[in-house]
């Protein structure tokens, strides 16, 4: 991101961002509420448009690409699982929105469930899973999309401390095992210190 600026509709305040992230780096973005952490991720993902500046990945300009065209997958505090679908079907949506899945796709889903510690639970529906397990399903859905950039917008903030630490360890392992570039927004310094190669402070 180079000289990126953003202005909320109806606001005179202009937010500015300038950040370079190395391949396979895990960066935590730390700061108080309202400072623009989530806005930054929305700009990178393409959900918001900057006033000026550029977003590049591997030398390619991303600004003109729609969210679905960008090499990015995101995980938020709300897991956005469909209650009427099983865990494996919810994960399958990351591969094909119509769930028209090949045998290879199904093998990939099984592997993703194993990677996030949910082996054997693919047939369960969200109501049959704990809060932490539902976030694991959402994380597995991110993995099967096979995008090189993972954005995390405080996805574990609603979990208790022990479970949050467990999920952070899982993310760190998956980040390294899958060779991802990961940006995680948090307002908790202990979470940033526990997971990140580098911490960026927004003020």
What features would you describe in this structure?
- The chain is of the alpha/beta class and 203 residues long.
- It folds into two domains: 1-71 and 147-203, Rossmann fold (3-Layer(aba) Sandwich), CATH 3.40.50; 83-146.
- It has six helices and ten strands.
- It has helices at 37-45, 87-92, 103-115, 131-144, 161-177, 189-195, and strands at residues 2-7, 14-17, 26-30, 52-54, 56-57, 60-61, 72-76, 149-153, 181-186, 198-201.
- The chain has a five-stranded parallel sheet, with helices on both faces. A three-stranded antiparallel sheet has the order 2-1-4, with helices on one face.
- α3 (103-115) crosses α4 (131-144).
- The relative contact order is 0.20.
Short characterization:
With 203 residues, the chain is α/β, with parallel strands linked by helices.
Keyword list:
5-stranded parallel beta sheet, Rossmann fold, 33% helix, 203 residues, 3-stranded antiparallel beta sheet, single chain, alpha/beta, 2 domains, 10 strands
């Amino acid at each position: 991101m180079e000289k990126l600026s953003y202005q909320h509709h109806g606001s005179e305040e202009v937010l500015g961002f300038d950040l370079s992230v190395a391949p396979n780096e895990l960066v935590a973005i730390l700061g108080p509420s309202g400072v623009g952490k989530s806005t930054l991720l929305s700009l990178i993902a393409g959900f918001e448009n900057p006033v000026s500046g550029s977003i590049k990945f591997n030398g390619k300009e991303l600004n003109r690409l729609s969210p679905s065209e960008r090499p990015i997958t995101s995980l938020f505090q709300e897991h956005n699982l469909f209650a009427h679908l099983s865990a494996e079907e919810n994960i399958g949506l990351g591969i094909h929105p119509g769930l028209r899945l090949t045998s290879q796709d199904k093998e990939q889903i099984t592997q993703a469930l194993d990677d996030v510690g949910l082996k054997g639970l693919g047939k369960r529906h969200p109501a049959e899973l704990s809060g932490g397990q539902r976030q694991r399903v959402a994380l597995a859905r991110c993995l099967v999309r096979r995008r090189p950039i993972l954005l995390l917008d405080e996805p574990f903030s609603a979990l208790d401390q022990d479970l949050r630490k467990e999920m952070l360890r899982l993310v760190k392992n998956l980040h390294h095992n899958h060779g991802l570039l990961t940006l995680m927004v948090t307002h908790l310094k202990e979470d940033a210190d526990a997971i990140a190669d580098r911490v960026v402070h927004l003020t």
